[in-house]
């Protein structure tokens, strides 16, 4: 039994010597610690910058600047508390598709080092951790059809796919990893959770071949550094998120001048997220009624689910589109042109549209990898002396054009089934950007590739060239997929845990 | 005039008025001036809505050429042509609405007629 330790109570200058230091107490760090603790005697140190409660001064360590296409302020999309992003996530869960792992010849820099099958064994465990119910992502159609009729799609490039939701039943919020697994972390004899513990540098040995130590510090409540201490672990796993992992590696530049693992100028590059442009289209359903599992989450069987439209792998290959998940949102009114289109189309197809209703369409998109969409360090420092981040954000015209093709295919399929009609609301770049939201999924900045010239970490999450430094979480995703990352990054982290058990025990 | 004859006369007069209203006014049904394309436009049950849509279609040829094109595309009527368009991916965007090509061309013809 290990109680949480407040790093501010440690003696100044203390040196901790765990087998494995895990930097970051979000979903990846917590999942990793629990998996590593299971059936091993590894001495695990889980370092969390925040505490169990939100602290504005700690959160302010995240602030940064940005350029390029508008993006959320850097401190908004993440939370520096135990549990990390799960303290504000929506619970949206869906496994990545097999094609997301493939080298797609129309997607530069694509291809994971392993196929989706490499995660098969870990997905059910990840699903249990996020508490999203039984694994019925692929059975949604049959479960839903028993509840209310699905909207028929004509044969074509999109199919109805399903999200499941982390423990959202009634008023119960999605699983918050910090609160939910506090007991498990404390119960594990070999996990030492250390709160208010900020890693400020990854120090390499002079030959740059392994991590010698981590510099750490607490934040003084009045500002500035409180106590400094040191961790000398056998192995280090960076699990601080897609932005902070890159920041720490770049800022740790005393031995490797470009930053740890950045010998090929890749750390911080290829930043990804899932853009969520709103009201991208209007879908008219000739019959009017739409099953409630399209517009909101609904309990189907033993899970909370929501239907979306996804491109098939065959369509993606033939049309060279990216991943996307198209959602139906809320009812909207048609203008006179819309009514004319509906009446004329329904007459032409010989269907009754007297009860037709229109719905706003949204989506989550997969971006093309772009090495210039990147995080860099600025000259400004935070209260601990770490350089702040700057994000240069880019959404290319190609990103929008590719998704537009997918929407057009959806429009064709609803016409083919006689179920409805679709209007694409976005043509110009400004149309897409006008109602742009983001998933706050920070991806790709410490990308994974077997070739050190193309990736910071290898297929096992180990930083190329550094024997004892690993990275967990969505920072290593070389391509992003359109699925929300939490379930997937946990599955990937559990795979890393199995690897670490082999190399560290 | 007996009562029966009066009723019959009133009924006949009413029918004549109704027929007149139907034929010569838009009270019961919308009438359109005769055009050389009525064999095509008869496929549009609501020609006013089609005209509204068709007025927004860009880049179409003149009415005669359009009609000739449509006669070739619609040997089995609009519904079959529209379904064939959808199956073949021949969709046209009108103000963002994705619509079967034949239907759009016919709407454009209605707007030009």
Task: Summarize it.
Chain A is α/β, with parallel strands linked by helices and 505 residues long. Chain A has helices at 27-37, 56-59, 98-101, 123-130, 140-145, 177-180, 182-187, 244-251, 292-295, 313-319, 336-349, 397-416, 429-434, 485-504; strands at residues 5-6, 15-16, 20-23, 44-47, 65-68, 92-93, 158-165, 191-195, 198-204, 211-219, 225-231, 235-238, 275-277, 281-285, 298-300, 303-311, 324-332, 357-365, 374-381, 387-393, 420-424, 436-438, 469-471. The longest helix of chain A has 20 residues, at 397-416.
What labels describe this entry?
heterodimer; A: about 500 residues; alpha/beta; FAD/NAD(P)-binding domain; 4-stranded mixed β-sheet; 23 strands; B: about 110 residues; mainly alpha; 2 domains; elongated
What this model shows, in words?
The complex is a heterodimer of chains A (505) and B (113). A six-stranded parallel β-sheet of chain A has the order 1-8-4-3-12-23. Chain A has helices spanning 27-37, 56-59, 98-101, 123-130, 140-145, 177-180, 182-187, 244-251, 292-295, 313-319, 336-349, 397-416, 429-434, 485-504; strands at residues 5-6, 15-16, 20-23, 44-47, 65-68, 92-93, 158-165, 191-195, 198-204, 211-219, 225-231, 235-238, 275-277, 281-285, 298-300, 303-311, 324-332, 357-365, 374-381, 387-393, 420-424, 436-438, 469-471. In chain A, helix 1 (27-37) links the parallel strand 3 (20-23) and strand 4 (44-47). By secondary structure, chain A is α/β, with parallel strands linked by helices. Chain A contains 14 helices and 23 strands. With 113 residues, chain B is mostly helical. Chain B has two domains: 1-31; 35-112, no CATH class. In chain B, strands 1-2 form a two-stranded antiparallel sheet. In chain B, helix 3 (47-54) crosses helix 6 and helix 4 (63-73) packs antiparallel against helix 6. Chain B is elongated, with a radius of gyration of 20 Å. Chain B starts with a helix and ends with a helix. The chains are: A alpha/beta (505), B mainly alpha (113). The A-B interface holds A 154, 281-282, 336-341, 343-345, 347-350, 408, 411-412, 415-416, 421-425, 427 and B 43-46, 49-50, 52-53, 56, 78-79, 82-83, 86-87, 89, 91, 93-100, 102-103, 106-107.
């Amino acid at each position: 039994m290990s109680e949480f330790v407040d790093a501010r109570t440690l003696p100044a200058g203390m040196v901790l010597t765990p087998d494995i230091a895990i930097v970051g107490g979000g979903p990846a760090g917590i999942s990793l610690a629990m998996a590593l603790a299971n059936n091993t005697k590894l001495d695990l140190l889980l370092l969390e910058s925040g505490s169990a409660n939100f602290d504005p001064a700690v959160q302010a360590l995240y602030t940064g600047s940005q350029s390029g296409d508008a993006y959320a302020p850097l401190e908004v999309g993440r939370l520096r508390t135990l549990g990390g992003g799960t303290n504000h996530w929506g619970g949206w869960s869906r496994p990545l598709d097999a094609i997301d792992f493939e080298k797609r010849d129309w997607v530069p820099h694509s291809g994971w080092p392993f196929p989706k099958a490499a995660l098969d064994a870990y997905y059910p465990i990840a699903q249990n951790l996020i508490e999203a119910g039984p694994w019925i992502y692929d059975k949604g159609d049959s479960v839903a059809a028993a509840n209310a009729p699905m909207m028929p799609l004509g044969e074509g490039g999109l199919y109805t796919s399903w999200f499941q939701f982390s423990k959202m039943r009634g008023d119960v919020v999605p699983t918050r990893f910090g609160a939910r697994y506090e007991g498990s972390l404390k119960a594990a004899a070999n996990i030492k959770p250390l709160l208010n513990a900020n890693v400020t540098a990854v120090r390499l040995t002079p030959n740059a071949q392994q991590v010698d130590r981590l510099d750490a510090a607490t934040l003084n409540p009045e500002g500035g550094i409180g106590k400094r201490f040191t961790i000398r672990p056998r192995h280090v796993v960076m699990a601080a998120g897609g932005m902070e992992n890159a920041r720490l590696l770049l800022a740790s530049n005393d031995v490797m001048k470009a930053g740890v693992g950045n010998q090929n100028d890749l750390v911080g590059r290829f930043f990804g997220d899932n853009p969520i442009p709103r009201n991208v289209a209007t879908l008219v359903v000739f019959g009017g009624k739409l099953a409630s599992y399209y517009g909101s989450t609904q309990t189907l069987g033993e899970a909370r689910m929501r239907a979306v439209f996804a491109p098939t792998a065959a369509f993606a290959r033939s049309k060279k589109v990216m991943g996307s998940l198209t959602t139906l949102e809320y009812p909207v009114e048609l203008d006179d042109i819309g009514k004319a289109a509906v009446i004329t189309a329904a007459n032409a197809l010989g269907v009754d549209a007297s009860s037709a209703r229109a719905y706003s369409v949204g989506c989550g998109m997969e971006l093309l990898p772009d090495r210039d969409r990147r995080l860099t360090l600025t000259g400004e420092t935070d209260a601990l002396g770490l350089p702040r981040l700057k994000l240069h954000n880019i959404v290319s015209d190609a990103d929008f054009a590719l998704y537009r093709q997918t929407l057009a295919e959806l429009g064709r399929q609803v016409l083919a089934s006689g179920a409805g009609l679709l209007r694409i609301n976005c043509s110009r770049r400004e149309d897409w950007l006008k109602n742009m939201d983001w998933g706050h999924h920070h991806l790709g900045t410490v990308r994974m590739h077997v070739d050190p010239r193309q990736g910071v970490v290898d297929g096992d999450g180990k930083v190329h060239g550094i024997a004892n430094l690993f990275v967990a979480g969505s920072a290593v995703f070389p391509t992003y997929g359109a699925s929300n990352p939490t379930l997937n990054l946990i599955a990937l982290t559990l795979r890393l845990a199995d690897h670490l058990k082999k190399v560290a025990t | 005039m007996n009562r029966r004859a009066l009723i019959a006369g009133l009924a006949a007069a009413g029918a004549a008025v109704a027929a007149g209203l139907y034929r010569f006014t838009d009270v019961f049904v919308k009438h359109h001036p005769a055009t050389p394309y009525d064999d095509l436009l008869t496929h549009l049950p609501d020609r006013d809505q089609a005209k509204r849509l068709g007025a927004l279609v860009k880049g179409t040829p003149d009415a005669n050429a359009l009609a000739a094109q449509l006669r070739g595309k619609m040997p089995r009527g609009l519904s079959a042509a529209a379904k064939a368009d959808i199956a073949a991916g021949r969709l046209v965007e009108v103000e963002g609405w994705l619509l079967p090509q034949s239907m759009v061309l016919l709407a454009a013809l209605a707007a030009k007629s």
